[in-house]
Each structure stands twice: as C-alpha cells, then as structure tokens.
Amino acid sequence: MKDKKDFISRFLKYIKEKEKRIPYPEKLENWFAVEKEAKSKIRRRMLNRVYLAVTVSAALLAGVVFYLRHDSVKKVDLKDLAATMAVEAASDQIMLHISSGKSIAIKDSSTVNYSEAGNVAVDDQINVESPEQDDNTEYHKIFVPQGKRTILILADNSKIWVNSRTKVIYPHRFTGKTREIYVDGEIYCEISHHEKWPFIVKTPNNFEVEVLGTSFNICTYGEQAVSSVVLAEGRVSVTDKNHKKTWLLPNQLINIDSEGLGAKRIVDASDYISWTKGFLNIHSETLESVIQRLEMYFNIKINIESQSLKTVKISGKMVLMDSPDEILSGLSNLIPISYTKNNNAYVIEAKR
Length: 352
What we know:
This protein is α+β, with helices and mostly antiparallel strands. The protein has seven helices and 23 strands. The chain has helices at residues 2-21, 24-74, 78-84, 269-273, 287-298, 307-310, 324-334, and strands at residues 94-97, 103-106, 111-114, 120-122, 125-129, 139-144, 150-153, 159-162, 166-171, 179-190, 199-202, 208-211, 215-220, 227-233, 236-239, 245-248, 252-257, 260-266, 279-286, 301-304, 313-319, 337-342, 345-350. The chain has an 18-stranded mixed β-sheet that branches. A three-stranded mixed β-sheet has the order 20-23-22. A two-stranded antiparallel ribbon has the order 19-21. A hairpin with a 5-residue loop joins strand 7 and strand 8.
C-alpha cells in the first residue's frame, strides 16, 4: 500500500515538472484541442439523440396518420354518405356508379361481381374497373330502376339480390372491424359468415340490421311509412332509432315504423323472397297488400275505390316480367274487379 502511494506521488511530481517545461501558448493549444474533441463528441451524441427522436416521431406520426385513415374508413356514416351520393333515377337501365365517376349501364338480371381485391366484373365483362391501389375509402353504388332486378356479389363473397327501385352503397372492399352497406329499397341477402366480422345494413328509415352470416330480406323504401325484415336462415338483430334491439329467428318478420320496432310474427319466408325468382308468391293476402307491393315494384299509383275490395283475399303467383296491365288483367280473372288507367295511375273498381 505504501509503495503504491509513493508511486502516485512520484508520478504527479513528474507531470508537474513536465507541465512547467511546456510553453503557455502550447498549453492553450492542447487545451483547445481537448475541448474541441470533447465538444465534437457531445455534438455527435446530441445529433444522434435528435435523429433518434425525429425517427421515432416520424414513425409515431406515420402510425397516427395510418390510424386516422383506417379509422376514417371504419367510421364512415353511410347514411350521411348516401345523402351526398344521390342517384338520379333518370335512366330506365340498371346503373353501376364507380367512385372514379364512371357509370356503367347493366342489363336486367345481370350479376355484378367483386373480387377480394375490389376489382369488379359484370357478367362476362372481366375487370370493368380496378380500384386505386391502397384506396380503402372507395365506395360504389348501384341503382336498379322500376321493374328490374340484379345480383351483387360483394368482396367478402356475400350475395345480394337487389330489387326494383333500390339503391345500394357499399365499399369496393371491406376494411375495419365491420362490414357496412347502405340500402334504400329491397334486398335479399346471403351473407358470407365471419364469426368476428359483423355485417351491418343501414337504412334511410333509422334502423340497422346486424348479422355474422345468414339469409334475410329487407324492405325499406325511404318513402314508405313501414319497413320490414324477414329472416330465412340463421339469426339477425334489428336495432331501431331508439337503440332498442331485438333478435329474429327463421320465418319471423318484424315491421319498423316511425315509432320503432313493432311486434314479431311468424310467416313463410319463401313468400317474401320469391321476387328473387321473378314472381310474387301470394298466400291468402289482401288485395290491398298485393296492390301495395305492385306500387312499390313498378313505382305506380293504384287506387282501390271500394273499401270492401281491399280486404278480399288472394292466393297465387304474379310474374314480375309481366306489365302492370297484364297483372291487373290476370287479377280481374280471379276476383270480381275491373280497372281503368288514367295517365300513370290505375283505378280498381268492383266489377258490375
């Protein structure tokens, strides 16, 4: 221990003697060199820290931008979007409107098919339109005029029959935690099952239908006071504007009006989806009910003059390829009625 202390003492004495021999200017020069090197090291450390901070911030910002973009897709209010994407019914053809502004006329009863990537084909016309790369906000819309129908196969492989006078708005491919579409009119759906990916149908009449995978029919024309949901297979939930929710089982129907959900009742679901096969299947329905369905399908006005005629029961099939005149003529052979036409309106009276 004593030897170690002596060594340190001698070493310090040597340094002091050495320092006395170095001229002052050289001392300063050496000191400035040491200081410059020290400052250079400090500066490099600071720049490294700043670079790291900028890199992290940029990464965080990119994450935020991605999140906001992704979140904006997920939270699009399709009902609000529908108000800004009005489809004029000026054409008597089925019209597919692409978000790029392109419109495509489609033949009656055609199939519009989307791939998983969002490419769309119509019948045998392959790749009618391809989406912008990474464009997750692209919405398409289809409008079916009176007296026509079409089939829509979405990117998740869900199949939708679109009835006369119906508008559907949907993304070219689904992103986010839910699959959402907007419907004004009547559709029959066979939804591709995904256990953790709910399918939601929004409507102009302030109710929503949510499923994981099932078959159901929605009739919700915006101008009609009463909408309906009929379940063919599986299970669906229906939520009204008051956030009241109910579940339907197969062959159950529920009406929804301005007050909200009505009472459920048992029906034959096949009667409500027969239109997908080109006819109306009628089992002991009142003439008034049948006429209302014809009015919606053909967008015409039919007045029943006699109150007693409204409650007359009808059974049979009405072919939707027929004209309103042909259908009313066929009805007059089944029940004692006659009809006259004045411009676009019809009047039904008791046969004399």
